[in-house]
Amino acid sequence: MLLKNTQSKWVGLVAAILLMVLLMCASVIYGYTNTSWRTAIDSFTNNNGSNEHIIIQTVRLPRALIASAVGASLAIAGALMQTLTKNPLASPGIFGINAGAGFAVVAAITLFSVNDLQAFNGLAFLGAAVAAISVYAIGSFGREGLTPMKLTLAGAAMAAMFSSFTQGLLVVNEAALEQVLFWLAGSVQGRKLETLQNVLPYIGIGWIGSILIAGKMNILSMGEDVAKGLGLNTGLVKITVGVLVILLAGGSVAVAGPIGFVGIVVPHITRSIIGIDHRWVIPLSGVLGAILLLAADIGARYILMPSEVPVGVMTAIIGTPFFIYIARRGFNGR
């Protein structure tokens, strides 16, 4: 743990917020179309309708805001899941929640030609809920009950199943392939601000709820028996955390598609910096998640310029080595 006292933790949190804001500004300015800081400022203070001003306001600003919101949501969801399941590999991607939400949206597009953004939101939440409940139920079977390893295997199985179903639907309906392929890779490119506005109430509840429940998560992390001995209603806390994860993960998938590894990488980095107190872990994970996705999105613009790599590919490149490291270290270290 790098930051050991309250004052240093506040300094670290504020520094992370400033870095996030700086990356949001960089996301608005840098890309294929050459713009400057001055151009970005003029687009808001003295908009002349030029191509550069239109791109900044209608393309890059929504993109920066969406990347920040999605990154924060996935990171917080991962932090909650890792504590709830006592599994260092827990995240919406690994446990099949993203895949379930993605399958629900693709099924609606391919089978029923649904194109309504509000419908996408509801379907993403439904798919996330079905996947989460299924993984928890499957992981609880057997005499040993719920264990980190069984949860991981159940999550991998559900993720594979929903991914296979998704691919099968796209094979049957090739017309829908182009419409959803880039979305399935996980991307914030071309997303409209309206899409974020539709899910913001839900992920906003997820953010606020996660901060409010942070103290109870500290007690729950001590173990089931200790938490019950201290008077914590563990069942209610688990249900609440499950709902929060569904809101955060479902909202993220509805906006940007299934983006993996953010929920694994960020909570571990956060705990190495600030410790295991969830009153600090939750907000810092949110900020660092936004930083990671913003940085990945900016990098995705330059690798194959003028084409762009989906940000989900970038997070996979970053997260895969980290995932292997955590898996090799085993389930004992937190």
TrEMBL record:
Membrane topology recorded in Swiss-Prot or TrEMBL: Multi-pass membrane protein
Transmembrane segments: 12-32, 64-81, 93-112, 119-139, 151-172, 199-219, 239-269, 281-303, 309-327
Record's keyword annotation contains Cell membrane: yes
Gene3D superfamilies assigned to the protein according to its UniProt record, in alphabetical order: ABC transporter involved in vitamin B12 uptake, BtuC
Compartments in which it is found: Cell membrane
UniProtKB keywords: Cell membrane, Membrane, Transmembrane, Transmembrane helix, Transport
Cell inner membrane recorded as keyword: no
SUPFAM superfamilies xrefs: ABC transporter involved in vitamin B12 uptake, BtuC
Entries under InterPro entries matching the protein: ABC_BtuC-like (IPR037294), ABC_transptr_permease_BtuC (IPR000522)
Family statement: Belongs to the binding-protein-dependent transport system permease family. FecCD subfamily.
Protein name, entry field: Siderophore transport system permease protein YfiZ
Biological source species: Neobacillus rhizosphaerae
